Amino acid sequence: MAKLKIDITDLHKSFGSNEVLKGITTRFNEGDVVCIIGPSGSGKSTFLRTLNGLEEITSGTVIVDGYDLTNTKTNLNQVRQEVGMVFQQFNLFPNMTVLENITYAPLELKKMSKDEAHTKALDLLKKVGLSDKADAMPESLSGGQKQRVAIARALAMDPDLMLFDEPTSALDPEMVGDVLEVMQELAKEGMTMLIVTHEMGFARKVANRVIFTDGGEILEDNTPDQVFENPQHPRLKDFLNKVL
Ligand code: ADP
Ligand code: MG
């Protein structure tokens, strides 16, 4: 199979007259673990959402794993099967058990057999440290546990790329570590990951690249060491002074 590539050229996105992404050009390769940092409202979520077709693109091109997302003929459901996404607010199905949450898409979309989907879900629950929660309902879980289920659910589709939009921002501080640990493990296994986060320690330790966005543009794109030790753009320096 060809190596995963994500190619983004002059991506613009507007909501009405509000231009939120102002010409983003970048590329991600297989195995990249990229943290995206920047102030609130700078277009980070919108950017991630354009990569799996959750936001329509105003202009420019986005090619994810060979799928041209600007081509109206592209089957977005197929793209979404290959691109897993984890949200700040978990978005678990509240009326399904943990196991059902994880097996739903493989059963419905991949037509996986029930046995195979169950075995896989139990493996994934083990991986995220929740083997004992298969039959629990989401409402009985802590935020950190819900987020680990959400990660397991995304992984159940065997995605080539995982998008994380502030996966720990809604968690109580004592829950953050467990979720970051699962993500670090995934990164170690070679998963390609784009992570919007305010966890600077994690970005520094786990990412191979850190992108700083502000005002809908990429202002810096460099190794974690460079971004945190030797920031160039004044707005990045200012941002780091505020968050570190
Ligand atoms: P960030 O994730 O960096 O905080 P967002 O991508 O959520 O930024 O938002 C960037 C801008 O886009 C904000 O001004 C926000 O109000 C606007 N925006 C985001 N989603 C929508 C939407 N669905 N409709 C209209 N405006 C939106
Ligand atoms: Mg956001």
Strand content: 25-35%
Which ions and ligands are bound to the chains?
A: adenosine-5'-diphosphate, magnesium ion
Helix count from the secondary structure assignment: 9
Helix/strand order: EEEHEEHEHHHEHEHEEHH
Residue stretches low in confidence (pLDDT < 50, at least 5 long) are none
What does the overall shape look like?
globular
Radius of gyration: 18 Å
The mean pLDDT is 97
Strand ordering within the main sheet: 6-7-8-3-9-10
The biggest beta sheet is recorded as:
6 strands, mixed
Q: Structural class of the secondary structure composition?
A: alpha/beta
How far apart lie the N and C ends?
A: 41 Å
Helix coverage percent: 25-40%
Number of DSSP E strands: 10
Would you mind describing this structure in some detail?
The chain is an alpha/beta fold and 244 residues long. The longest helix has 16 residues, at 173-188. The chain has helices spanning 44-50, 76-82, 98-108, 114-127, 143-155, 173-188, 200-206, 224-229, 234-243; strands at 5-15, 18-29, 33-37, 59-64, 67-68, 83-86, 161-165, 192-196, 209-214, 217-222. The protein is built from nine helices and ten strands. The strands form two sheets. Strands 6-7-8-3-9-10 form a six-stranded mixed beta sheet, with helices on both faces. A four-stranded antiparallel beta sheet has the order 2-1-4-5, covered by helices on one side. Helix 3 crosses helix 4 (114-127) and helix 5 (143-155) runs parallel beside helix 6. The structure holds adenosine-5'-diphosphate (ADP) and magnesium ion. The site of magnesium ion has 4 residues, from helix 1.
